[in-house]
Amino acid sequence: MAYPESSQPAASGPALPESQPTTPVSDEAVERQAARRTRRAFLVGGVAALAGIVGWNWLLDAPQEDGLAAPLRRVLDANGRLATAYFRNTRLATEFPKSRAKPLRKNGTEGLKSALDAVAWRLQVQRYAPAGTTPRMQEFTLDEVKALPRVEMTTEFKCIEGWSTIVTWAGTRLSDFLAKYPLATRSGRPVDPNNPPTDLAPYVSLVTPDKEYYVGLEIESALHPQTLLCYEMNGTPLTPEHGAPLRLVTPLKYGIKHIKRIGTIAFLDQRPPDYWAVRGYDWHAGH
């Protein structure tokens, strides 16, 4: 049925705009625009590459600090200082059921190549000396270490190479050792990790008997409740390749800090050298 023009039903919705005619783009214009973009990208990339080369050469020419270009070492140290500032004894590594413990692979022989005389072995501890005085050494047998409260924990040993293993450790807390033998303060006051004395040494050095392997710790990590002077692993005494008779375990640090076969512990004012730090690794080595 036809309707008069004035009586046709109104279309629903807004009226669509009329399409505008499109101006075709020539092949030459497309090529010119692509060429401009290519030149711009080339210039930006060239500047970035040149900056990278200049920066790399600057790093190569920079003086070395502990086996690393000084600017990079300062970045690592700044990160370490920040981590230390936020470090809390209440932050604990995850502990696991003993049933999840596995044998730990043998890894690293630095400091273990000389013959071990377990009977003659003694732990040498250098007391934190008052300024201007000669540090005093004190010796301890393994039995004296074992006489302190025994702590057992099952934690994840993390290697800086990227692998990890859950291990059950047993030993005495380093903080318990220092509470019994107050060698980390100049005054001889026992150490309380929750209320540290004002004259507490800021750093700890641990060295193997042959002096071939050595690590440094900030005192906060040394006093952490999971930092152990360890003499057992997975329910049995340490074997020589795993650091017998006494090793360090500190599960908030990578394995490079878990020194095996401790010979000497010293409490110091200055940050001590560290075997892997002088080879370019992070001195703090926390995770």
TrEMBL record:
It holds the Pfam family Oxidored_molyb. Residues 1-32 are annotated as: Disordered. The chain crosses the membrane at residues 41-59. Signal peptide: none annotated. The keyword Transport does not apply. Residues 116-276 form the Oxidoreductase molybdopterin-binding domain. Keywords: Membrane, Transmembrane, Transmembrane helix. Residues 1-10 have a biased composition (Polar residues). It comes from the Bacteria. InterPro entries: OxRdtase_Mopterin-bd_dom, OxRdtase_Mopterin-bd_sf. This is Molybdopterin-binding oxidoreductase. It comes from Hymenobacter jejuensis. The lineage of its organism: Bacteria, Pseudomonadati, Bacteroidota, Cytophagia, Cytophagales.
